Amino acid sequence: MKLSIYLLFIVTILTSSCKTKPNAHKPNPSGNAGVMVIIMNDVVKKTTAGKTLWDMMVQPMVGLPQEEPMFDVSVIPHRSFSDFMKTYRNLVVVEVGNNVKTEGIKYFNGTWAKEQALVRIYAKNAANMEKMVKENELRLVGFFAKAERERLANYFKSTFSTEMKKAVKKKFNVSIDVPRDFKLRKDTTDFLWMSHETAKSSLGLLIYQIDYVGEGSFSKEYLLNKRDETLMNQVPGPSEGSYMTTEHKFPLNYQVIKTPADSNTIVLRGLWKVQGDMMGGPFISMAHHNKETNKITVTEGYSFNPEKPKKRNMVRQLEAILRSYQPIVKQE
Fold first, then answer.
1. Rounded to an integer, what distance in angstroms lies between the CA atom of residue 257 and that of residue 142?
2. Given CA atoms 308, 309, 313, 319 in this order, what sign does their dihedral have?
3. Who wins on pLDDT, 8 or 316?
4. What angle is formed at CA 256 by the lines to CA 287 and CA 202, rounded to 5 degrees?
5. Which band of pLDDT confidence, cut at 50, 70 and 90, is reported for residue 73?
6. What is the pLDDT of residues 99-113, one digit of tens each?
7. Distance CA 321, CA 319 (A)
8. N or C, where is the chain less crowded by C-beta within 10 Å?
9. 159-194 pLDDT, tens per residue?
10. pLDDT at position 24 over 80
11. CA atoms within 13 A on the CB side of 36
12. Which residue, 72, 43, 46, is CA-closest to 59?
C-alpha cells in the first residue's frame, strides 16, 4: 500500500513538471529598465564596427525634453561574461573572427532569463560586422525597444485598475490596461482624465474623441489643432486661466505604426506645457479611427517630474499602457 502511494506521488510530480511553462524555472532578468550589456572583446570595441553598434544603442530617444539614450549601455569582454551577466534583460553578444563559420544576426527571447532579449552578431571581420549592423539598425533597436515595452505591458496586464478599466470601457467601448495606482480626475462627454499623483511627480492618461472629417483627419495639423482645443477646455493648470497645451517650439515626431488592434495608428511625440504657468514635460499620443462611430479615439499619456530630468522610462511606461488599446467587439 505504501509503495503504491509513493509511486502515485512520483507520477503526480512528473506529470506536474511536464505541464510547467518552458521558462518557469528561469530567473527574472537582471538590471534596471533600459539597461543593456554588449559583450565584445576590446579589439572589436575599438573598431568602427564596435563604435557603430555603441552609437546605435545610445542614440537619443525621440520626444524627450533633455537628451537621453535609448539604452544605458555597458560593454564587457567575453572573459567577463559570467553566469550572472547572462541573466541581464538586454544582451548583445558579438563574435568576430576567422573561427566564425556563418555570418549573420540572430534574435532570441528568454534564453537565460524570463523576458530576456538577446541578439547574437557573427562576423568574420569588423568590416562585415559594421555592414550588417548598419543594414539592420531599425530591426536591432526595434527588437530591444519592443522587449522593454512588452515587459511593462505584461506587468500592467496583471496589475490594472478594475475601476479605471470599467470607466474606459463604459465611455469609449475600448479596453486599456490602466495601472492600479491611477485615479479618475475628470469624466465629461467624450473625455476621460486619469492620473497617478505623488508629491513630486505625475503620470497622466487622457482619452477623448474628435470628429473624423475625411482624408485629412489623421494629418499632424488636424490632430494637433484638436488636441490643443480639447486640452484648453478640459485640462486646467494650477493657476487661474492656465491650461495644458502643446509646446509648438519643440520638434514634434509624427509616425504611423501597426498595432494588434489597429493597422493604421498615428503616434505623436512631443512636449506639453501649461499656458500661463511654468509646467511641462513629454507626451505621447495615439489616434485610432473608430469606424462604428466614425470618430477618432485619441489615447494620450503625459509625465511631469521637474526634479528628475530623466523621463525615458516614464514615457516607455505610458507607451506600454497606450499600446494595450483594444476595441470591444460587440456580441451579436
1. 12
2. positive
3. 316
4. 50
5. very high
6. 999 999 999 999 999
7. 5
8. C
9. 899 999 999 999 999 999 999 999 999 999 999 999
10. no
11. 27
12. 72
d(CA 136, CA 131): 9
Q: What is the 3-state secondary structure (H, E, C) of the chain?
A: CHHHHHHHHHHHHHHHHHHCCCCCCCCCCECCCCEEEEECCHHHHCCHHHHHHHHHHCCECCCCCCCCECCEEEEECHHHCCCCHHHECEEEEEEECCCCCCCEEEEEECCCCCCCEEEEEEECCHHHHHHHHHHCHHHHHHHHHHHHHHHHHHHHHHCECHHHHHHHHHHHCEECCCECCCEEEEEECCEEEEEEECCCCEEEEEEEEEECCCHHHHCHHHHHHHHHHHHHHHCECCCCCCEEEECCCCCCEEEEEEECCEEEEEEEEEEEEEECCCCEEEEEEEEEEECCCCEEEEEEEEEECCCCCCCHHHHHHHHHHHCCCEECCCCC
Using a cut of 0.90, tell me whether the model's pTM lies above it.
no
Contact call for residues 246 and 270 (beta carbons, < 8 A): yes
* Rounded CA separation 134/270 (Å): 27
Q: In this structure, are residues 140 and 133 in contact, taking their beta carbons and an 8 Å threshold?
A: yes
Please name each of the domains of the chain with its CATH number.
Answer: 35-155 (no CATH), 160-327 (3.40.1000.10)
CA-nearest of 205, 214, 211 to 286 is: 205
| Cα–Cα nearest to 297, from 318, 266, 330 | 266
For the record, the C-alpha cell of 227 comes out as 488636441
**Residue pair 173/197 in contact by the 8 Å Cβ criterion:** no
